[in-house]
Prior knowledge:
- The complex is a heterodimer.
- Chain A is an alpha/beta fold.
- In chain A, 40% of the residues lie in helices and 15% in strands.
- Chain B is α+β, with helices and mostly antiparallel strands.
- Chain B is 47% helix and 13% strand.
- Chain B has helices at residues 4-17, 24-35, 43-50, 54-63, 83-87, 90-101, 143-154, and strands spanning 75-80, 107-108, 114-119, 131-133, 136-138.
- At the A-B interface, α1, β12, β16 and α17 of A face α2, α4, α5 and β5 of B.
Amino acid sequence: MTNFKIYVPRDSSAISLGAEKVFKAIKNEASNRGIKIEIIRNGSRGLFWLETMVEVETPQGRVAYGPVNPADVSSMFDKDFYLGKKHPLSLGVTSEIKWLKNQERLTYARVGITDPVSLKDYETHDGFKGLRKALNLKPQKIVDEVTDSGLRGRGGAAFPTGIKWQTVLNAPSEKKYIVCNADEGDSGTFSDRMIMENDPFVLIEGMIIAGLAVGADQGYIYLRSEYPNAQAILNEAINIAQQNGFLGKNILNSKFSFNLEVTRAAGAYICGEETSLLESLEGKRGLVRYKPPLPAIEGLYGKPTAVNNVISLATIPIILDKGSKFYADFGMGRSKGTLPIQLAGNIKQTGLVEKAFGITLRELLYDFGGGSATGKKIKAVQVGGPLGAFLPEEQFDTPLDYEKFSEINAVVGHGGIVAFDETIDMSKLARYSFEFCAIESCGKCTPCRIGSTRGMEVIDKIKGGIDQEKNVAVLRDLGETMVHGSLCAMGGMTPFPVISALNFFPKDFGLETNET
Amino acid sequence: MLSDNKLEKIEQHVNLLKDKPGALLPLMHAIQDDIGYIPEESYEPISKALSLSVAEVHGFVTFYHHFRTKPSGKHILQICRAESCQSMGSENIESYCKEKLGIDYHETTEDQLITLEPVYCLGNCACSPAVMIDEEVIGRVTEDKIDDLIQEAKK
């Protein structure tokens, strides 16, 4: 008799809700009842309000149960859940769950389905097909595919990936580097973490292809220290890839060699800025560099370096496998392809939604998100991390598109959406934006280093009713100075959340009029 | 004074990593993972091995929030202060922890059991509010969960 196949996720968020305890409870219960089961630690499907989500393989496909707590396990066995039978926690066939069915998972094609560190699973589900194709292409052709796909940097800056690679390819140098920016520090974002924990091979494959395209033989993944689980899984996957000829010398018997290493960061938000990241990788304080020169020309140790975000790199394999046109057919305007959007904060159904660009915030917040977790009215959302603007309800019909967001002084960024209900005080959040900037500023440029602290003081004065009109003018002026005078996006974008909060929610600042 | 044992360990890490490109970052992790913090006494041997000034080593260590120059408690409890957790009431969790442990951020309980630290995002924003104890992330944190966690730490 074959064993019953049961899936229990090993994703950090699932574990943070008790997946490890559920795993043990199922194991023990099965052994007590003498039922032979095989438990596979898959990734999370990204429906976090249903985690721990347990799945069972049946002739009809995988069926899901959730949210499962250890206390539910005994009753699940009573109902023979391991045969896929009904239980109050039944969610039906997993792939038919509306929330998943309405997505367009390209970058996330395998996430939640496979065992993250099973090379066999990876290859069965189209893994390394992109690399195999790329190995037969000239570097210029690989870069052209990426350029034609319209892929733009998913870390937040939205710079066309193909153009960046072209610059590195054109830069004459014996030594070049691929650096993966995995310093995912923006609040409300976890899509990098999910890729690294739930489908690490896709990132590895993307980096190898990047190396092939620009002529680099060394890659670094600069990973934030807050992600120990991701580090362990990445290292495990890198070892497996090495042992099977996907990394190291003469990859898949080609002439191409590529080595990959994970470097653990040390808790500085600013190191998500690419030049600060490079300084840190070189073993220095993470001070932002002046640009030019661009890292594509003088990057790590002064050599041409492609610095790309995790999601950008993890999207490369499917572009090479299915072609640039396939990818570019998704999306709208100049925002091609899909974006793994993260619904976070005060939302009922939080999780990972990969959709083509063009979906509106309202659809995301209500159709996918189901409204706020607290059941109260959603007052504002912050899109794109702590440097993104706050958007009030009247802007919820804005489609997710880099240019459309730019028109309303907002950013799509890394695709994180944090919702706040009506109990939130927007002036507190605005003050926090400055506080965060003061804590995390690298200190190199004055607007960011000093402006952040002055900003807190000015908000305190406004809230304290001191010379409000004058201080609002000072706050706006300070914002302008930081936007135009800062070296990087840290100081240059901190005014976005602050000024948007002031514009849309003046009452929270103790301002009577709708002063704008 | 640092014990000979610790100095010896530091020297071993230095010898192992000093020739690696960008050595300072992995080296500091190795030292802190091994002995729990980065003693100032380590600056001199490190600066010599890597041809840096002591000031540069000091500047490096103090730039990064993750590195500490003093021993921590047995456990490190990090509370996420970022926006997503704020939207789900992390401020209450912060004040509850501070009151319950009788310490502020960057401090350690008198019994040397728990050090409290703020953190800016744990990537668990779909399960806010979140905290991390040592390397374990806990989501949808309530006061009850904090009580359990402290109880567990005392064992």
